[in-house]
Design goal:
Helices cover 52% and strands 0% of the residues. The chain is an all-alpha fold and 141 residues long. The protein folds into two domains: 30 residues; 99 residues, Cytochrome c-like domain (Cytochrome Bc1 Complex, Chain D, domain 2, Orthogonal Bundle), CATH 1.10.760.10. The longest helix is centred in the N-terminal third of the chain and has 30 residues. It is elongated. It binds heme C (HEC). Heme C (HEC) binds next to helix 2, helix 3 and helix 5.
């Protein structure tokens, strides 16, 4: 009888642990955002500064001031505020990540924002957003 009780206790405990782990895992998985898409029509918007001399350098200043605290100077997501974010930051230094979306889609995302990515449409001028993108594109090289 006693042995049976101990066994039962163990089963109950094991079940509780499995539930706890599953819950923690699910909560984490839900916090990592994976499906943020810009509207289709933004994909073909062209960056007016992409081949303008000096745009990258100006973009770097804008990026370092407004974006690096989360995304990091290198774009890897190592900014000082990154640790407190629930959402995983994209790695701009990884070409496979940074080349998936067009400048137009990023322009839309940066202006619109979502959850922990702040909307910059009232903070930065359109030109500044485009220039910041010119700079981000250099981080993946
Ligand atoms: C407070 C932290 C924070 C700041 C500041 C910030 N970002 Fe973000 N950014 C995020 C987070 C978090 C995401 C991921 C959002 C998601 O996937 O839902 C993100 C996503 C992005 C994306 C989308 C990448 C993709 O492939 O989907 C771009 C582009 C971007 N940020 C550029 C910028 C630029 C440019 C600036 C500065 C003008 C900036 N961010 C400032 C937190 C930040």
């Amino acid at each position: 009888m006693n042995i049976r009780r101990t066994k039962l206790k163990k089963i109950v405990l094991a079940t509780a642990i499995i539930f706890a782990i599953t819950f923690l895992f699910l909560e984490n998985a839900m916090a990592v955002h994976t499906g943020w898409f810009a509207p289709d029509e933004t994909a073909s918007l062209k960056n007016p500064f992409i081949s303008e001399k000096g745009a990258g350098a100006e973009g770097k200043k804008i990026y370092d001031k407004n974006c690096a605290k989360c995304h990091g100077l290198s774009g890897k997501g190592e900014g000082e505020s990154a640790g407190s974010l629930q959402i995983e930051l994209p790695d701009f230094s990884n070409k496979e990540v940074s080349m998936v979306e067009s400048d137009g889609e990023w322009f839309w995302k940066i202006r619109t924002g979502q959850f922990e990515m702040p909307p910059f449409q009232l903070i930065l001028k359109d030109d500044e957003v485009w220039k910041a993108i010119v700079h981000i594109r250099t981080l993946g090289k």
